[in-house]
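Figure 2 data, in text form.
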Amino acid sequence: MNIAVAGTGYVGLSLAVLLAQHNSVKAVDIVSSKVELINQKKSPIVDKEIEEYLTTKPLDLIATTDGEAAYSNAEFIIIATPTNYDVEQNHFDTSSIDAVLKLVEKVNPTATVVIKSTVPVGYLESLRLAWPKLPNLIFSPEFLREGRALYDNLHPSRIIVGTPKNCSEDLRKRAERFAGLLQEGALDKNIPTLMVHSTEAESIKLFANTYLALRVAFFNELDTYAELHGLDTRQIIKGVGLDPRIGSHYNNPSFGYGGYCLPKDTRQLLANYQDTPNDIISAIVAANSTRKDFIAHQILARKPKKVGIYRLTMKAGSDNFRQSAIQGVMRRLHD
Protein backbone atom coordinates (compact mmCIF):
# COMPACT_ATOMS: atom_id res chain seq x y z
CA MET A 1 0.00 0.00 0.00
CA ASN A 2 1.18 3.51 -0.80
CA ILE A 3 1.16 5.84 2.21
CA ALA A 4 2.28 9.46 2.54
CA VAL A 5 3.11 11.12 5.87
CA ALA A 6 3.17 14.91 6.11
CA GLY A 7 5.64 16.03 8.78
CA THR A 8 8.73 14.27 10.12
CA GLY A 9 8.67 15.24 13.78
CA TYR A 10 8.25 12.63 16.50
CA VAL A 11 4.72 11.73 15.42
CA GLY A 12 5.25 11.76 11.67
CA LEU A 13 8.62 10.05 11.48
CA SER A 14 7.74 7.35 13.99
CA LEU A 15 4.57 6.56 12.03
CA ALA A 16 6.47 6.58 8.74
CA VAL A 17 9.01 4.09 10.10
CA LEU A 18 6.31 1.93 11.69
CA LEU A 19 4.26 1.71 8.48
CA ALA A 20 7.28 1.32 6.17
CA GLN A 21 7.82 -2.17 7.57
CA HIS A 22 4.91 -3.44 5.46
CA ASN A 23 4.03 -0.59 3.10
CA SER A 24 5.61 1.86 0.68
CA VAL A 25 5.88 5.15 2.58
CA LYS A 26 6.88 8.64 1.52
CA ALA A 27 7.66 11.06 4.34
CA VAL A 28 7.15 14.71 3.41
CA ASP A 29 8.81 17.69 5.05
CA ILE A 30 9.52 21.27 4.03
CA VAL A 31 13.00 21.16 5.63
CA SER A 32 15.39 19.70 3.07
CA SER A 33 18.12 18.92 5.62
CA LYS A 34 15.74 16.59 7.50
CA VAL A 35 14.78 14.88 4.25
CA GLU A 36 18.42 14.32 3.36
CA LEU A 37 19.19 12.78 6.74
CA ILE A 38 16.27 10.36 6.54
CA ASN A 39 17.30 9.26 3.06
CA GLN A 40 20.77 8.62 4.46
CA LYS A 41 19.11 6.40 7.08
CA LYS A 42 19.89 8.91 9.80
CA SER A 43 17.29 10.24 12.21
CA PRO A 44 16.90 14.04 12.39
CA ILE A 45 15.43 13.64 15.89
CA VAL A 46 16.67 11.89 19.02
CA ASP A 47 14.79 8.61 19.29
CA LYS A 48 16.59 5.34 20.01
CA GLU A 49 14.17 3.06 18.19
CA ILE A 50 13.86 5.32 15.13
CA GLU A 51 17.63 5.44 14.84
CA GLU A 52 17.84 1.65 15.19
CA TYR A 53 15.08 0.88 12.68
CA LEU A 54 16.42 3.31 10.06
CA THR A 55 19.83 1.65 10.12
CA THR A 56 18.95 -2.03 10.64
CA LYS A 57 15.46 -2.72 9.26
CA PRO A 58 14.47 -3.22 5.61
CA LEU A 59 12.11 -0.25 5.39
CA ASP A 60 10.37 0.90 2.22
CA LEU A 61 10.74 4.57 3.15
CA ILE A 62 11.69 7.61 1.10
CA ALA A 63 11.70 11.20 2.36
CA THR A 64 10.89 14.09 0.04
CA THR A 65 10.07 17.78 -0.06
CA ASP A 66 7.72 17.19 -3.02
CA GLY A 67 4.36 16.85 -1.32
CA GLU A 68 2.41 16.92 -4.57
CA ALA A 69 4.21 13.84 -5.91
CA ALA A 70 3.98 12.01 -2.58
CA TYR A 71 0.27 12.60 -2.13
CA SER A 72 -0.79 11.97 -5.74
CA ASN A 73 -0.80 8.17 -5.58
CA ALA A 74 -1.17 7.57 -1.84
CA GLU A 75 -4.12 5.56 -0.53
CA PHE A 76 -3.62 6.98 2.96
CA ILE A 77 -2.26 10.46 3.66
CA ILE A 78 -1.34 11.03 7.30
CA ILE A 79 -1.04 14.62 8.49
CA ALA A 80 1.34 15.01 11.44
CA THR A 81 2.29 18.65 11.14
CA PRO A 82 2.75 20.92 14.20
CA THR A 83 -0.27 22.78 15.61
CA ASN A 84 1.03 25.36 18.04
CA TYR A 85 -1.32 27.16 20.41
CA ASP A 86 -2.15 30.70 19.28
CA VAL A 87 -2.57 32.82 22.41
CA GLU A 88 -4.23 35.69 20.59
CA GLN A 89 -6.75 33.48 18.77
CA ASN A 90 -7.20 31.23 21.84
CA HIS A 91 -6.95 27.99 19.83
CA PHE A 92 -4.51 25.80 17.92
CA ASP A 93 -2.95 27.20 14.78
CA THR A 94 -4.07 24.61 12.22
CA SER A 95 -2.70 26.43 9.17
CA SER A 96 -0.13 23.67 8.55
CA ILE A 97 -2.98 21.16 8.23
CA ASP A 98 -4.83 23.45 5.84
CA ALA A 99 -1.72 23.70 3.65
CA VAL A 100 -1.59 19.92 3.27
CA LEU A 101 -5.35 19.63 2.67
CA LYS A 102 -5.13 22.24 -0.09
CA LEU A 103 -2.52 20.18 -1.90
CA VAL A 104 -4.39 16.91 -1.34
CA GLU A 105 -7.58 18.45 -2.74
CA LYS A 106 -5.63 19.35 -5.85
CA VAL A 107 -3.87 16.04 -6.54
CA ASN A 108 -5.74 13.23 -4.75
CA PRO A 109 -9.09 14.25 -3.19
CA THR A 110 -10.42 10.70 -2.82
CA ALA A 111 -7.53 9.50 -0.64
CA THR A 112 -8.14 8.69 3.02
CA VAL A 113 -6.75 11.61 5.01
CA VAL A 114 -5.80 10.78 8.59
CA ILE A 115 -5.17 13.74 10.88
CA LYS A 116 -2.68 12.90 13.63
CA SER A 117 -1.92 16.49 14.62
CA THR A 118 -3.51 17.59 17.89
CA VAL A 119 -6.59 19.71 17.15
CA PRO A 120 -9.45 21.43 19.00
CA VAL A 121 -12.54 19.44 19.94
CA GLY A 122 -14.95 19.50 17.01
CA TYR A 123 -12.24 20.26 14.46
CA LEU A 124 -12.88 17.37 12.07
CA GLU A 125 -16.56 18.19 11.82
CA SER A 126 -15.63 21.75 10.89
CA LEU A 127 -13.30 20.41 8.18
CA ARG A 128 -16.19 18.62 6.50
CA LEU A 129 -17.78 22.00 5.89
CA ALA A 130 -14.56 23.76 4.93
CA TRP A 131 -13.34 21.02 2.56
CA PRO A 132 -16.42 19.43 0.94
CA LYS A 133 -14.31 17.96 -1.88
CA LEU A 134 -12.39 15.81 0.63
CA PRO A 135 -14.92 13.16 1.67
CA ASN A 136 -12.58 10.78 3.49
CA LEU A 137 -11.32 12.61 6.59
CA ILE A 138 -10.65 10.78 9.86
CA PHE A 139 -8.87 11.67 13.10
CA SER A 140 -6.57 9.43 15.11
CA PRO A 141 -4.93 10.87 18.24
CA GLU A 142 -1.34 10.00 19.11
CA PHE A 143 -0.10 9.13 22.58
CA LEU A 144 3.66 9.28 22.16
CA ARG A 145 6.57 10.42 24.27
CA GLU A 146 9.30 12.55 22.76
CA GLY A 147 12.38 10.38 22.40
CA ARG A 148 10.34 7.14 22.63
CA ALA A 149 7.84 7.78 19.86
CA LEU A 150 8.54 4.67 17.79
CA TYR A 151 8.66 2.51 20.91
CA ASP A 152 5.21 3.78 21.84
CA ASN A 153 3.96 2.94 18.33
CA LEU A 154 5.47 -0.52 18.55
CA HIS A 155 3.92 -1.03 21.99
CA PRO A 156 0.80 1.18 21.93
CA SER A 157 -1.35 1.56 25.02
CA ARG A 158 -4.37 1.92 22.71
CA ILE A 159 -5.34 2.73 19.14
CA ILE A 160 -8.17 5.22 18.63
CA VAL A 161 -9.67 6.22 15.30
CA GLY A 162 -12.51 8.72 14.95
CA THR A 163 -14.91 9.18 12.05
CA PRO A 164 -17.37 12.05 11.49
CA LYS A 165 -21.01 11.83 12.49
CA ASN A 166 -23.22 9.96 10.02
CA CYS A 167 -20.25 9.04 7.84
CA SER A 168 -20.55 6.48 5.06
CA GLU A 169 -19.97 2.76 5.52
CA ASP A 170 -17.01 3.11 3.14
CA LEU A 171 -15.34 5.67 5.40
CA ARG A 172 -15.88 3.42 8.43
CA LYS A 173 -14.13 0.61 6.60
CA ARG A 174 -11.25 2.95 5.71
CA ALA A 175 -10.94 3.92 9.37
CA GLU A 176 -10.87 0.26 10.38
CA ARG A 177 -8.22 -0.39 7.73
CA PHE A 178 -6.07 2.38 9.16
CA ALA A 179 -6.39 0.90 12.64
CA GLY A 180 -5.33 -2.40 11.09
CA LEU A 181 -2.22 -0.79 9.61
CA LEU A 182 -1.17 0.45 13.04
CA GLN A 183 -1.83 -2.99 14.54
CA GLU A 184 0.15 -4.66 11.77
CA GLY A 185 3.22 -2.50 12.41
CA ALA A 186 3.16 -2.94 16.19
CA LEU A 187 5.03 -5.67 18.04
CA ASP A 188 2.25 -6.14 20.59
CA LYS A 189 -0.89 -8.09 19.86
CA ASN A 190 -4.47 -7.67 21.11
CA ILE A 191 -4.05 -3.88 21.34
CA PRO A 192 -7.12 -2.12 22.78
CA THR A 193 -8.71 -0.41 19.77
CA LEU A 194 -11.58 2.06 19.86
CA MET A 195 -13.56 3.19 16.82
CA VAL A 196 -15.36 6.33 17.96
CA HIS A 197 -16.89 9.61 16.81
CA SER A 198 -14.19 12.05 15.69
CA THR A 199 -15.16 14.61 18.34
CA GLU A 200 -14.83 11.94 21.02
CA ALA A 201 -11.37 11.04 19.68
CA GLU A 202 -10.32 14.70 19.80
CA SER A 203 -11.62 14.90 23.38
CA ILE A 204 -9.74 11.77 24.45
CA LYS A 205 -6.45 13.33 23.35
CA LEU A 206 -6.94 16.64 25.16
CA PHE A 207 -8.40 15.13 28.33
CA ALA A 208 -5.58 12.55 28.54
CA ASN A 209 -2.86 15.20 28.35
CA THR A 210 -4.73 17.50 30.72
CA TYR A 211 -4.94 14.69 33.27
CA LEU A 212 -1.18 14.19 33.00
CA ALA A 213 -0.74 17.93 33.55
CA LEU A 214 -3.04 17.62 36.57
CA ARG A 215 -0.75 14.99 38.11
CA VAL A 216 2.30 17.19 37.56
CA ALA A 217 0.51 20.19 39.06
CA PHE A 218 -0.72 18.16 42.05
CA PHE A 219 2.70 16.87 43.02
CA ASN A 220 4.21 20.30 42.44
CA GLU A 221 1.76 21.77 44.95
CA LEU A 222 2.53 18.92 47.34
CA ASP A 223 6.18 19.88 47.06
CA THR A 224 5.38 23.56 47.62
CA TYR A 225 3.58 22.68 50.85
CA ALA A 226 6.41 20.43 52.03
CA GLU A 227 8.99 23.10 51.22
CA LEU A 228 7.22 25.77 53.25
CA HIS A 229 6.56 23.44 56.21
CA GLY A 230 9.97 21.76 56.43
CA LEU A 231 8.74 18.33 55.36
CA ASP A 232 10.45 15.65 53.26
CA THR A 233 8.74 15.69 49.86
CA ARG A 234 10.15 12.32 48.83
CA GLN A 235 8.77 10.53 51.86
CA ILE A 236 5.31 12.04 51.40
CA ILE A 237 5.20 11.15 47.70
CA LYS A 238 6.44 7.63 48.41
CA GLY A 239 3.71 7.11 50.98
CA VAL A 240 1.03 8.54 48.69
CA GLY A 241 2.23 6.56 45.66
CA LEU A 242 2.16 3.21 47.46
CA ASP A 243 -1.62 3.38 47.17
CA PRO A 244 -2.22 1.21 44.07
CA ARG A 245 -5.05 3.51 43.01
CA ILE A 246 -2.51 6.34 42.70
CA GLY A 247 0.76 4.64 41.77
CA SER A 248 4.30 5.94 41.50
CA HIS A 249 4.26 7.35 37.97
CA TYR A 250 4.27 10.98 36.88
CA ASN A 251 4.88 12.14 40.43
CA ASN A 252 8.21 14.00 40.33
CA PRO A 253 7.99 17.67 41.41
CA SER A 254 9.46 20.03 38.86
CA PHE A 255 9.52 23.64 37.75
CA GLY A 256 6.05 23.09 36.30
CA TYR A 257 4.78 21.19 33.30
CA GLY A 258 6.20 22.35 30.00
CA GLY A 259 7.41 20.83 26.77
CA TYR A 260 5.48 20.88 23.52
CA CYS A 261 2.21 19.14 24.37
CA LEU A 262 0.97 19.73 27.90
CA PRO A 263 0.88 23.55 27.97
CA LYS A 264 -0.87 23.91 24.62
CA ASP A 265 -3.25 21.00 25.09
CA THR A 266 -4.43 22.15 28.52
CA ARG A 267 -5.02 25.67 27.24
CA GLN A 268 -6.90 24.39 24.22
CA LEU A 269 -9.12 22.21 26.39
CA LEU A 270 -9.79 25.19 28.65
CA ALA A 271 -10.74 27.22 25.57
CA ASN A 272 -13.18 24.44 24.61
CA TYR A 273 -14.72 24.85 28.08
CA GLN A 274 -15.61 28.48 27.33
CA ASP A 275 -19.34 27.83 27.65
CA THR A 276 -19.09 24.91 30.07
CA PRO A 277 -18.91 25.23 33.88
CA ASN A 278 -15.54 24.11 35.23
CA ASP A 279 -13.21 24.56 38.17
CA ILE A 280 -10.55 21.88 37.77
CA ILE A 281 -9.54 22.51 34.15
CA SER A 282 -8.95 26.23 34.70
CA ALA A 283 -7.15 25.47 37.97
CA ILE A 284 -4.69 23.16 36.20
CA VAL A 285 -3.62 25.96 33.86
CA ALA A 286 -3.42 28.49 36.71
CA ALA A 287 -1.49 26.08 38.96
CA ASN A 288 1.36 25.86 36.47
CA SER A 289 1.87 29.61 36.53
CA THR A 290 1.62 29.65 40.33
CA ARG A 291 4.34 27.00 40.62
CA LYS A 292 6.76 28.96 38.45
CA ASP A 293 6.05 32.12 40.46
CA PHE A 294 6.76 30.20 43.69
CA ILE A 295 10.08 28.80 42.44
CA ALA A 296 11.17 32.25 41.25
CA HIS A 297 10.16 33.80 44.60
CA GLN A 298 12.10 31.18 46.56
CA ILE A 299 15.21 31.89 44.50
CA LEU A 300 14.89 35.67 44.75
CA ALA A 301 14.35 35.46 48.52
CA ARG A 302 17.95 34.28 48.82
CA LYS A 303 19.14 37.40 46.97
CA PRO A 304 21.55 35.54 44.72
CA LYS A 305 24.07 37.34 42.54
CA LYS A 306 23.96 34.52 40.01
CA VAL A 307 21.52 31.70 39.37
CA GLY A 308 22.70 28.41 37.89
CA ILE A 309 20.60 25.46 36.79
CA TYR A 310 22.09 21.97 37.14
CA ARG A 311 21.41 19.67 34.18
CA LEU A 312 19.37 22.12 32.16
CA THR A 313 20.06 19.88 29.16
CA MET A 314 18.27 16.71 30.12
CA LYS A 315 17.63 13.45 28.34
CA ALA A 316 15.31 13.48 25.36
CA GLY A 317 11.84 12.23 26.00
CA SER A 318 9.84 12.30 29.21
CA ASP A 319 12.01 14.93 30.89
CA ASN A 320 11.79 17.43 28.02
CA PHE A 321 8.79 19.09 29.65
CA ARG A 322 11.05 20.25 32.49
CA GLN A 323 13.32 22.23 30.19
CA SER A 324 10.64 24.63 28.99
CA ALA A 325 9.25 24.87 32.54
CA ILE A 326 12.71 25.89 33.75
CA GLN A 327 12.84 28.50 31.02
CA GLY A 328 9.54 29.90 32.33
CA VAL A 329 11.07 30.30 35.78
CA MET A 330 14.19 31.94 34.36
CA ARG A 331 12.02 34.48 32.51
CA ARG A 332 10.35 35.36 35.80
CA LEU A 333 13.73 35.84 37.45
CA HIS A 334 14.83 38.08 34.61
CA ASP A 335 11.65 40.15 34.81
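Caption note: The chain has 13 helices and ten strands.
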